[in-house]
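Example record used in the benchmark description.
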Amino acid sequence: MPKNPLKIIFMGTPDFAVPALQALINSEHEIAAVYTQPPRPKGRGKAVQKSPVHNLADKNNIGVFTPTSFKKNKEAISEFNSLNADIAIVAAYGLILPEDVLNAPAYGCLNIHASLLPKWRGAAPIQYSIWKGDKVSGVTIMKMEKGLDTGPMIVKTQTPIIDTTTAQSLHDTLAQQGADAVIEVLDYVLDQETLPESTPQDESISSYASMLKKEDGRIDWHRPAEEIDRQVRALNPWPGTYFDTELAKRFKVKSTFVVDEKTSSDPGTLVTKAGNVACGYGTTLRLELIQPENKQPMSAEAAINGNYLEIGTTLIKNR
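Model output (structure tokens):
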């Protein structure tokens, strides 16, 4: 006799969580409810918008809950418990879950985390893995507990980070890997009526990826070209990277690549019309695509031809 499908609560908010929710919708499992962040003003017009997860749930007629907190809202905890879920799947939800919530489903709560734990716990694991020079990333499916991303690990996936990987491209790869991996785990639970074996995290090798700020995008030309290139790719599309010129003009940096040329020019000097910039330790970075304030993105050569930049200019660190 076939076993009953699992009754699942899905908790997620941004685009990263959408493939996982879609995979659950396509599966044999039952989605009892979706939890996501409340609609909020976004964009220049500040129009109130639902989250990507909320929109997908609406499209599929799945009930949606949007509490602003569990810790300060006993009613929200009671509501969650009353759903009598077998398991909860969490993907970039954005709220801290108290133990009353974590322990409510029969098999607990599983998190789809976008790093190879215990490395890069925290809010920005995708960006930090590129910025800090990791050669591989992946997704960890973990059993959630009270600590931040500290629970035992059930499944890991892997994908290489290469010299063209951006935060957006890695995000999209990991979002799909997470969706595929969580379905494998749920199918195992359905068949075996228990969670797969898990492995505790090694606290001694854990690292933390703190929430990013716009200021993180400021380029320090005294750093090596390779490190700046990683910064540009890691912070693309958000918060983005930038530099300021001596004329107090700000330029967003959309893409770069490392040039195998040594230079004796001071770091931050624009040395060629092609967009080569002197960086720390005699290294060279080429500005492939930049965007002057209130203009469209363009090549460095176009920026020079348009008198936005001048060869020999110092792209100073601070305004």
